[in-house]
Amino acid sequence: MTEHSLPLNPGKLPRHVAIIMDGNGRWAQRRGLMRVRGHVAGMESVRVVTRLARRLGISYLTLFAFSEENWQRPAMEIRVLMALMRSYLHRELAEMRDNQIALKAIGNLKQLPEKVLRDLEQTISATAEGARMVLTLAVSYGGRSEILHAVKTLAKDLVAGRLKPEDIDAALFSCYLYTAGMPDPDLLIRTSGEMRISNFFLWQLAYTEIYVTSTLWPDFDKEEFIQALLSYQNRERRFGLTSDQVKTENG
Ligand code: FPP
């Protein structure tokens, strides 16, 4: 299928799609495999979704790859996830550069093993010129920690007299978050059917459309992604207004 035959409205695509990639462990366990095999299989979905997002012209794609809470998983699983991250960075670098994708990473990156952090930083700097899509990996990421980090930095600026309390509004606060300069997600996709946001983007999801599918992440393919985008295109985003007001605004 080419992008021209997709039943999507190209004028109504989300600018920023964020994904909670869940269900790798269950995917593997259902097949009698070790959980980590699910993460390996999930890498293919990462590739498929990234390629399609880029082809469609989605400007920002954020993938929740590893949460702060995930550090409590068995050491072997963490080791495999970190190794997968490194092999992903090595394997995808050329494609990212060819497709003008800029990689970014958000989270408490200092917690990452040195080699993972080094590879991440190298890939981020090698793709920094990419102007067609920003691919953000949320790693060692927690929404509450992000907000606390922002509050502490902001408090330092207040104490130092660089800011006045009356300067603080939502736009200014957003500049202190890891996502500074990025639009809030228009669409959040969560796989594997759980109806929660799991400490992801607590500030940024205020008006995001949420799409939950029971499909497990390794089974999330091109068609599933298109279904999520179609569902988004059929939503009426009201941002607190009435339906009539939105219709008047949109002409
Ligand atoms: C959730 O499934 C998934 C994760 C904790 C990791 C997601 C990571 C990848 C897809 C690979 C690394 C990604 C990149 C971009 C390098 P789960 O293990 O919680 O599944 P379960 O709920 O069925 O146990």
Primary descriptors:
251 residues, binds farnesyl diphosphate, 6-stranded parallel beta sheet, alpha/beta, 6 strands, single chain
Write the layout of secondary structure elements.
Layout: E1 16-20, H1 24-30, H2 35-56, E2 60-67, H3 75-98, E3 101-106, H4 114-126, E4 133-141, H5 143-159, H6 170-174, E5 187-190, E6 209-212, H7 222-233, H8 243-249
Parallel strand pairs: 1-2, 1-5, 2-4, 3-4, 5-6
Helix pairs in contact: 1-2, 2-3, 3-4
The chain binds farnesyl diphosphate.
Residues 21-26, 39, 42-43, 46, 63, 65-66, 70, 84-85, 88, 137, 192, 217 line the site of farnesyl diphosphate.
Short description:
The chain is α/β, with parallel strands linked by helices and 251 residues long.
- Give me the Rg, rounded: 19 Å
Strand tally is 6
Strand order of the largest sheet: 3-4-2-1-5-6
The number of helical segments is 8
List bound small molecules: farnesyl diphosphate
Helix content bin: 40-55%
Strand percent estimate = 5-15%
The global form is globular
**Broad structural category:** alpha/beta
What's the oligomerization state? Answer: single chain
Distance between the termini: 33 Å
Taking pLDDT < 50 over at least 5 consecutive residues as the criterion, the unreliable ranges are: none
Largest beta-sheet characterization: 6 strands, parallel
